[in-house]
Design a protein that fits this description.
This protein is 0% helix and 48% strand. It is mainly β and 149 residues long. The protein has one domain. Strands 2, 3, 5, 6, 7, 9, 10, 12, 13, 15, 16, 18, 19 and 20 form a 14-stranded mixed sheet that branches. Strands 1-4-8 form a three-stranded parallel sheet, with no helix packed on it. A three-stranded parallel sheet has the order 11-14-17, with no helix packed on it. A hairpin with a 2-residue loop joins strand 19 and strand 20. The chain is globular and about 35 Å long. The termini are far apart. The relative contact order is 0.15. The mean pLDDT is 83.
Length: 149
């Protein structure tokens, strides 16, 4: 889905990608006039790559399951969106948001994000979050601008 434009919303709530793929969904440069909804029931085996995407409204991955053990499970580097809602996300692998722009809230409430190493579970160096930052994670290795918390 590289450099694809969607005039409304993108929804995929009952998808499961094959376990043999290292990249579950590659949507670099995706442009969506509405939101992207990959909610509860969505399962991705491999990296969910949404690098450089422009989402006019939100990315909702609440209740989704992302699995890429030993790698990046959700790659939002250089992506822009209004709100990112990852409430109750189950994620095996890290979340990368380097240089991402979230105009309003970034929500990872009750998210279970696990990495197989001591690497941060969320890397958000040079990210811009215009509203609330709600991180209630079961693991707490988060990096903002090279500073781990």
């Amino acid at each position: 889905m590289h450099n694809t434009r969607v005039g409304s919303s993108f929804c995929d709530v009952r998808s499961k990608t094959p376990e043999s793929r290292r990249v579950a969904l590659s949507a670099g440069g995706l442009s969506v006039d509405g939101g992207v909804f990959l909610n509860k029931g969505f399962i991705a085996e491999g990296e969910l790559r949404i690098v450089g995407a422009h989402l006019r409204t939100n990315l909702t991955i609440s209740g989704a399951t992302l699995r890429n053990a030993g790698g990046v499970a959700l790659n939002l580097n250089r992506a822009s969106m209004s709100v990112m809602d990852g409430s109750e996300l189950s994620c095996t692998g890290s979340i990368s948001m380097v240089s991402a722009q979230v105009a309003s809230d970034l929500i990872l409430r009750n998210a279970d994000v696990k990495t197989s190493t001591e690497d941060p579970v969320v890397v958000a160096e040079r990210a811009s979050i215009g509203g609330a930052l709600l991180l209630v994670l079961q693991q707490h290795r988060v990096t903002f601008g090279g500073v781990a918390s």
